[in-house]
Amino acid sequence: MVQTIVILGGAVGGLHIAHALLKKNNKDIKVILVTKNSHFYWNLASVRAIVPNVIPDSEIFRPLSAALSRYPPESYELVIGTATSSDFSSKTVTVSLSSDAEPSSTRTLTYDHLVLATGARYADASTPWKADSSYEAVLSALHNTQSLASKAQHIVVAGAGATGIEVAGELGYEWGKTKEIVLLSAGSSLLGGDMVGPAAANELKKLNVSIKYDSRVVGSAKLDSGKTEIRLENGETIATDLYLATTGMVPNSEYVDARHLDADKKTVLVDEYLRVANVEGNNVWAVGDVVSKPRAGFMITQKQAASVAKNLELALAGKAPVVAKGPPVDILGCSVGRGRGAGRMNNFKLPSFGVWLAKGRTLGVQMVPGYIDGSVA
Fold this sequence. Notes:
The protein has helices spanning 12-25, 46-49, 57-60, 64-68, 135-151, 162-175, 197-206, 298-316, 352-360, 368-373; strands at 3-8, 29-35, 39-41, 61-63, 76-87, 92-97, 106-110, 113-116, 120-121, 154-158, 180-184, 209-212, 217-222, 228-232, 237-240, 242-245, 250-251, 284-286, 331-336, 340-345, 348-350. It has a domain at 3-123 and 249-329 and 367-373: FAD/NAD(P)-binding domain, CATH 3.50.50. The protein is of the alpha/beta class. It has ten helices and 21 strands. The strands form six sheets. The protein has a seven-stranded mixed β-sheet with strand order 7-6-5-2-1-8-18. The longest helix is centred in the last third of the chain and has 19 residues, at 298-316. Helix 1 (12-25) packs parallel to helix 8 (298-316).
């Protein structure tokens, strides 16, 4: 009997799981991959792609249809749409289809197993840091940011997490000698006090990036001059040509009943097998930024995807799951421009050159073909 696995989300976690299942079980299952974006988007490189003519679109956007077309057509389906509600007791998910989909604007999918890999989004939908909308919209946001960054003489980046540091670093590397680049940190240090913070700050200063600490943004507004006025919690205002926010990441979990979510963070609650908590039948799984456990991160999502794929195979065979594995060590690395970096492995500081070699040199773009040809899984 063919079993249906619905995977919500076509980014790193969802596509990895789809490949793993289809490569081994394509005669026994049907995988339905639901995604807002018709393309796989390597958003890890978005921080550099905002600089024009550095990374071609074709290197970070690939059609998901190309990734799945290697499998028998009866074993998969690609649905372009957004999950709007779910009923775990009846094993159904309601999807709002893209505007050009026919004949209906919504569709109800029935599953045997469900995977939640819908990720998270940033509060400012105009930024290209995540693929939280259609391919056309994300591509437009990226190109618009490129254009604005090229013209701006003063740029403010809000948020001193890894994304904010990497965005400021790329801007500083390209324009630090000709434009004023400012990074706003809500607290008194970068990365929320992580030991990598001082090293990242030092690298940013080498690229002529100014850092303003204790500068939490509470609002922004467009001025008649075309500039953006940024309001800080301390009462200060800053006028800038381009405001890039990297704050306020929100899990895409609105379609999940509240009893399966963390009351404050709204992330999906999972057990040690990455099964969603409080689900009768234990047939709903979750990975990646929609879980953010132990934190959001590419390597964490990768390991979670491998674990869920393994546990789905065991479930399909009627066997018990195994405890999900995380990365063997806790690594935090930030590229800082195209030549330097800052990072740690557990509590050991990594040399700038080492972070550049491992991450900053390519931002992982060379991994994209593996997600398309399935070799990642």
